[in-house]
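User: Please check token order:
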Amino acid sequence: MRPFLAALALLTALPVRGVFSPEELRGSVVFFPLVGYLLGALLALFAFLPLPPGLLGALLLALWLGLTGFLHLDGLLDSADALLGAKPRERRLAILKDPHLGAFAFGVGGLYLLLKWQALVPPPPPLFLLLLPGFARFLVLPFLNLYPLAREGMGALVRGGPLLPALILALPLPLLFPLPALLAVLVAFAVARLALSRLGGLTGDVLGAMIALAELGGLLGYALWKALGG
């Protein structure tokens, strides 16, 4: 039970409290997909509201951000300022600790919110909304174990946890929606490679950006999949 609560504390804004041991934190990775499914279940239920598509999409986006406490959006904004543009590595790492936002954060954040809102108008089917957040949260785990860390932080707390159970839990999305899952993987890979080349490894902010953009990639992949007759 405590590893599940640890996963909730790491990934959402739900009011979970407690001091977790290193073993519980590493074991929490098993539950990363389940935390995503919990979020996805709330999104799927909300998608049944009889509202105009544009309004429903905007409210779904607001709920998506609110349930996660804007954690992953914050990681995306910080990562945009740190990873984009010409800067030395030390300056990039310093930017990740700076609470102020620069031009790259505003530009990337605005495009991210606009694209995600449009991808939710009209909303994808409830099953897809249920599965996507769980798959996106699993995606960071293989990169977290394969790539170095640019600095200590949340990644170091969960690194080395068991991947196979999490993989099994995350399999429904790629089995049912292969193209959206593939695009989500490619987006996460691109962010991880960029962080490796410019920071020397991953950070907690980068992991948040990977989750945020993997979700967006999955949504855009679903729109493309439907356009191709999937």
Summary: The CA atoms of residues 173 and 186 lie 15 Å apart. Residues 204-227 form the longest helix (24 residues). The radius of gyration is 17 Å. The chain has a mean pLDDT of 91.
